[in-house]
Design goal:
The chain has about 230 residues and is α/β, with parallel strands linked by helices. It has helices at about 20-25, 50-60, 85-95, 105-110, 115-125, 140-145, 150-155, 175-180, 215-225, and strands at about 35-40, 65-70, 100-105, 130-135, 160, 200-205. The relative contact order is 0.17. Bound molecules: adenosine-5'-triphosphate (ATP) and nicotinate mononucleotide.
Length: about 230
């Protein structure tokens, strides 16, 4: 197991003994022009069934070829530093259990980015012709107006927001949702979303999972299990 602590603004370089899973996650996956790829950023500390549910629903409802998890070196709005990147990637790979539609990546560590606007801007340039969609849970829509350059993000690629217990009704009333209201499409038309020019977004309802990494960390702490 490799232990990694990426520094904001610096790309990660691995030595020859690095874990092959980590080496693979640091590579930018291949995508062909015309393919439909969902980008699902998160701390995944730890990953859980809620993340898998959102990915599976996005694959189906948006008719995506793949969902790429972007396991972040650290959420810029969270004060708590997440656990080791190598461990989070290993846990993410274990929970998706080889699902062919989900790809675990650490491309922000490769690109040296931490803010989503920078990551998505670079990915849109490098993957020109690929139909990219940013995916996030409804709790993040509530905070989206606090993200750096959030309006630029909304202009870079369509966005799919997935329902989450606790954020169901407040999600669509969020300041960013109000500001972007005229670009929202009905979720019944969600299959069209990857084909649309940004800004465009939708709010997807479906099966909900009441799990959070915070609750899982607290439970582990109580049981004294190392994370
Ligand atoms: N149960 C869930 N239902 C819907 N979306 C979720 C769920 N859990 C996480 N997400 C979404 O997945 C993405 C990554 O979330 P993250 O890794 O922070 O998990 P989390 O459970 O929210 O963690 P934490 O409790 O530490 O904040 C975010 O866009 C978040 O909104
Ligand atoms: O760019 C920002 O300002 C920003 C602020 C908050 C969160 N994000 C991103 O949102 C994604 C979800 O974060 P999290 O911690 O809720 O898993 C993850 O990719 C973060 O890097 C990005």
């Amino acid at each position: 197991m490799s232990f990694l602590k990426p520094v904001h603004g610096q790309r990660v370089h691995l030595d020859d003994h690095a874990d092959p899973a980590l080496r693979s996650a640091l590579k930018l996956p291949l995508a062909l022009p015309g393919q439909r790829i969902g980008l699902f950023g998160g701390s995944f500390d730890p990953p859980h069934a809620g993340h898998v549910m959102v990915s599976l629903m996005a694959l189906r409802r948006l008719q995506l070829d793949q969902v790429w998890w972007l396991v972040t070196p650290g959420n810029p709005l969270k004060h708590r530093e997440p656990g080791d990147l190598g461990r989070r990637i290993a846990a993410a790979r274990a929970i998706v259990a080889g699902h062919p539609g989900i790809r675990i990546t650490a491309v922000e560590a490769t690109l040296g980015t931490r803010y989503t606007a920078d990551t998505l801007s670079l990915l849109s340039q490098r993957l020109a012709g690929v139909k990219l969609v940013w995916i996030m849970g409804a709790d993040n829509l509530r905070q989206f107006h606090r993200w750096r350059d959030w309006r630029r993000i909304a202009g870079l690629m369509p966005i799919a927001v997935y329902d989450r217990p606790g954020s169901t009704f407040r999600g669509p009333a969020a300041p960013a949702a109000v500001a972007l209201a005229r670009w929202r499409i009905d979720e019944q038309d969600a299959t069209l979303l990857p084909d649309l020019e940004a800004p465009a977004w939708t709010f997807l309802h479906g099966p909900r999972v009441a799990l959070s990494s915070t609750a899982l960390r607290a439970a582990r702490h109580k049981e004294n299990v190392p994370s």
